[in-house]
């Protein structure tokens, strides 16, 4: 009987390196055969058989395959050694290459929270009905968006472009002539960042930023916004502007008048980033508790009717701060800017994402908003 038991142990130990179903097959085979030893050794062998079954069900037969329970042919168990040469390291985007910078910007867009742009509100339609719509005054403020190294390089490129910049002009609706008229912004220079060989050679990081932001931000927002708010993924317009600091400012305006007087303007979303030194406003109150009086240098972005009608939210031009809002609805201006030194000149790179050609819509200027914020003459509704 002892030989039978030893034979059974050896065979099971030799076979159970197969699949779990094979484990069960061999265990049941020996449990139900050889009546002459089964009844005598049943009590003794039952725990062993049970253990085999449990190992089969959990697919944990390493000890048996190695002969760990005796009687079976021992099989070497190869341990898996870690290959140090392929040890996974944290991904660090190389800011010295175009590919690295593009990937860095993409990752920053992916990591940022743009959810306020999808905030819903109740809106009264022209026919008196109530409907849900995207909040036209929603705004996103993201600090330390690109990181010190990249934002410092982008500011250096912006400074190098100053000789090419020209006095910044904008337009506004004139009630007297019932037409759009141009006007020159006081103490503001600007230019458009162009692609192509010459444009890229002059400011590669600014070009890369605009291209990557346009592509990745539009794709991210299109996943969560209604069709009417969808953005083109490869089209944009832009402007690099600098306030020279002698009280220069921007009038109160809406970036896109909404087609009432400028039907060809398809700008839907504004994304501006400040190119000041990263520590430009250290020690000052954080957003949304900033006030114009906090800093004598001024140059604050002021958003009207945010967060509620009648409120004004002030946003300091902190270096590496991204501000995003709807181009066709948010009323805003820039407080007078003063620059005691070169480092204090207020640089802003604005990228306008345009409405998707198939589904995107540009909203007309709300009459109540126009009446509340604009009058005739110099304060007439303006366009950025």
How would you portray this structure in words?
There is one protein chain. With 384 residues, this protein is α+β, with helices and mostly antiparallel strands. It has helices at 2-15, 20-32, 35-58, 62-65, 98-111, 148-160, 196-202, 204-222, 367-373; strands at residues 120-124, 130-134, 139-142, 166-174, 179-191, 231-243, 246-253, 267-274, 301-304, 312-315, 322-326, 332-338, 346-355, 382-383. The longest helix has 24 residues, at 35-58.
Highlighted features:
384 residues; alpha+beta; 8-stranded antiparallel beta sheet; 4-stranded antiparallel beta sheet; 9 helices; 14 strands; 30% helix
Largest pleated sheet? 8 strands, antiparallel
Query: Structural class given helices, strands, pairing?
Result: alpha+beta
pLDDT average, as an integer? Answer: 79
Residue stretches low in confidence (pLDDT < 50, at least 5 long) are 1-43, 50-91
Report the principal-axis shape: globular
What's the total helix number? 9
How far apart are the first and last residues' alpha carbons, in Å?
Answer: 98 Å
Compressed to H and E, one letter per element, the order equals HHHHHEEEHEEHHEEEEEEEEHE
The residue fraction in helices comes out at: 25-40%
